[in-house]
Design brief:
Length: 303
């Protein structure tokens, strides 16, 4: 005898199979123990695996638990988008519903379907921490020189629910050269032990609404490098607005940015970021991208 659990796998932040960031969604996780969920995520060996459960909050379509191969996360971007798309396309939601909330560790997360294969999620307003003063140490931890960092732009932690350290670099070539030494980073900046490290370079004008990114988190999330990081892309957009690195609309009230991520590791992804802007600060942040189905299967666990 076995306990069978159906799952689906999708690629997120892409419009083609084998691009973007892969996600496994266990469609009905009732009866799974926490340790079993963690073991399944480790077996899947993807950046994240999600587990669908009945909601405990009113107004939410489902409860979603998110696991990396190493630990559970209270929130993550590409798992939210991919899970929302799976719910919508499998008839689990009422017909015609395109806007709904998912219950996650940080609370309800609002999602919205646009067309057949694009999904937006809404993020909390960003919070930024104190600038990291030892830029040379950060550069060394990335296998770079201090002059490889973008002059005049701070190394700064920020979050919209999950903490990341934002490190602006001079150009795309420098981004591709970065190799994280997590021990060296934590030795110079202890709080980095719980943060993913987001390195990026803004494309020069007139393409300044695009940014080229990589995210490393072997020490904090158990992910050596992430092909696409929705949870970190909202604060990234807010960082760019905050420090004048991307243009805003003519009336100064909104910004639209596309972050290209995963290209260096052969999983090119495009993360769309939309923000409301007031006084150089961002709110009403949305992150979106395409979702593509890949495969379906059944997990068989001992009874």
């Amino acid at each position: 005898m076995s306990r069978d659990y159906a799952f689906a796998q999708v690629d997120v932040f892409t419009d083609r199979i084998f691009g973007g960031n892969s996600l496994a969604v266990v469609l009905d996780a009732v009866g799974l123990l926490d340790a079993e969920m963690q073991s399944i995520a480790n077996e899947m060996n993807l950046a994240e695996t999600t587990f669908l459960l009945p909601p405990t909050r009113p107004g939410c379509a489902a409860r979603v638990r998110i696991f990396t191969p190493q630990r559970e996360l209270p929130f993550a971007g590409h798992p939210t988008l991919g899970t929302a798309w799976v719910l919508a396309t499998r008839g689990i939601l009422p017909a015609g519903v395109t806007r709904f909330a998912l219950e996650e560790g940080i609370g309800p997360v609002l999602v919205e379907l646009e067309g057949e294969s694009f999904v937006w999620l809404s993020q909390q307003d960003p919070v930024f921490g104190q600038e990291v003063s030892d830029r040379a140490a950060v550069a060394r931890a990335l296998g770079l020189e201090e002059q490889d960092l973008l002059a005049g732009a701070p190394v700064e932690p920020g979050n919209c629910g999950i903490d990341f350290l934002y490190v602006p670099l001079r150009d795309r070539k420098v981004v591709d050269r970065a190799v994280l030494d997590a021990r060296a980073l934590v030795a110079g900046f202890a709080d980095a032990a719980r943060m993913g490290v987001f390195v990026f370079a803004v494309d020069p004008p007139p393409a300044a609404r695009r940014v080229y990114s990589r995210m490393f988190a072997p020490h904090s999330f158990g992910i050596p490098e992430d092909p696409a990081t929705g949870s970190g892309s909202g604060p990234l957009g807010a960082y760019l607005v905050r420090h004048g690195l991307t243009p805003v609309s003519d009336d100064g009230t909104e910004a639209r940015i596309v972050s290209e991520q995963g290209t260096r590791m052969g999983r090119q992804s495009f993360v769309h970021i939309a923000l409301s802007v007031r006084g150089g600060e961002s709110s009403h942040i949305r992150v979106g991208g395409g979702v593509v189905p890949v495969l379906e299967g059944v997990l068989r666990l001992p009874a």
